[in-house]
Amino acid sequence: MSNASVATAIVKRLQQAGHIAYFAGGWVRDLVMNHPSDDIDIATTASIETIQQLFPKTIPVGVAFGIVIVVEEGYQFEVAMFRKDRDYFDGRRPAGFDPATPEEDALRRDFTINGMFYDPLTKTIFDYTFGKQDIAAKKIRAIGDPHARFREDRLRMMRAVRYATRFGFTIEDSTRKAILDHAETLLPAVAMERIWQEFKKMSYFAHFDEGLAELQRLKLLSTIFPQLRGIPPGEVEKRLAPVELFPKDAPAIAELLEIFPQSSLHEWLEICDYLKLSKEEKDFTRKLHTCFELLKMPLDWQANLEPIEWVRFYADEQADLCLSIYAARLPLHEQEFFFETHNVRKKALWRFIERIRRSTPIITSQDLVQAGVSPGPTMGKLLKEAERLAANFDLENKDDLLRLLRNSALWNR
User: Fold this and answer.
1) Confidence at residue 88, expressed as pLDDT on a 0 to 100 scale
2) Helix (H, G, I), strand (E, B), or coil: what is residue 125?
């Protein structure tokens, strides 16, 4: 069964038990916009206890907020009670909730385009917030009083920009004004981890650079990064110009860091720590900065680097991605020469690049043991030196390489 078929079966079981149940939120918006989507949430008048009784496998992820995960046919669906939120106490979460009608539930949601419901059995759309009208007008509009919506949940201000960027919509005037009025309250109400997740979600779709520029126009970006206060939105757009040419698999952090040109590695890593990025994301940031520093050298300096420096650079699995990100910064007429230069060099060094990638060195630790070298730090240095000598002197014969290694100062020490 398909994802939608299983979700429809869940709705049918809830309705047969005497409860209202509909698809909710983003899936309905995507249906109206003819965007295929498998991300189906379900809203119902059934209580959490009733949902758990009707479905044998559930995960109580948000019972305090009337939410449970129902697992059916290997699929997981968030099933939530129709609810009215009580007062929000920290700019992110309500103090509690009360059961509600579908219309009351719609009125507590963020934007009109996300306030619709859909009955998959009768194929009926319930639109209490005029979401279809705003989709047709390509508008992002807060439901009800935008000031109240943003006081309830400050992260909604960033979501407004994300939806506008993703769909090519504009933010309706009163919603936009409310964002400007409340932008500086984003922190500390919203945890940095949630802010980074919004950045990443924005980056999944085209025009992330436009979204970042819009965040600056709305004072949200400069609230997150105080060092951008006083920087005109036009300057942010200028800094982000290369992003349009970034490869599709470029990480969000690579795009975001374009806002901070001429920064040292230490400054980049401080931004990573500030955003609470993962070790993997920080490792990529280090590689990207190393790539930039290498490629910013004058061409004659690059040509004079030892071959092993390029071998080790190209052997990294993310080297091509870093090269493409750097190339996006170059004038278009220089990019062809840039890639040709690196392709020629990679081809010449390919045998040694592959040896590093496959961990198949010409000289191994066993070879050194047989030559009388004891295991330890010196052996590790000798293995690195053998790797260097092989690439620099274009050697693949073990005996020749071992002979050269024996004559090195490191061996004699």
Assistant:
1) 65
2) strand
Q: Exposed (0-12), middle (13-18) or buried (19+): which is 218, by Cβ within 10 Å? A: buried
Structure tokens at 329: 């910064």
Q: Quick check: helix, strand or coil at residue 18? A: coil
Distance CA 368, CA 268 (A): 40
Rounded Cα distance, 294 and 288, in Å: 10
Amino acid at 252: A
Beta bridge partners of 24: 41, 117
Reading the block at residue 4, the tokens are 């939608």
Q: For residues 376 and 365, is the Cβ–Cβ distance under 8 A? A: no
Per-block average pLDDT, block size 10, for the chain (413 residues)? 92 97 96 92 96 95 89 95 77 70 95 98 97 98 96 96 97 98 96 96 92 96 96 93 93 96 94 97 96 93 95 96 96 94 96 96 95 91 95 94 92 77
How far is 42 from 24, CA to CA, in rounded Å? 5
* Spatial separation of the C-alpha atoms in residues 233 and 216, rounded to whole Å: 6
Q: What is the pLDDT of residue 62?
A: 84
CA-to-CA distance for 8 and 22, rounded, in angstroms?
A: 9
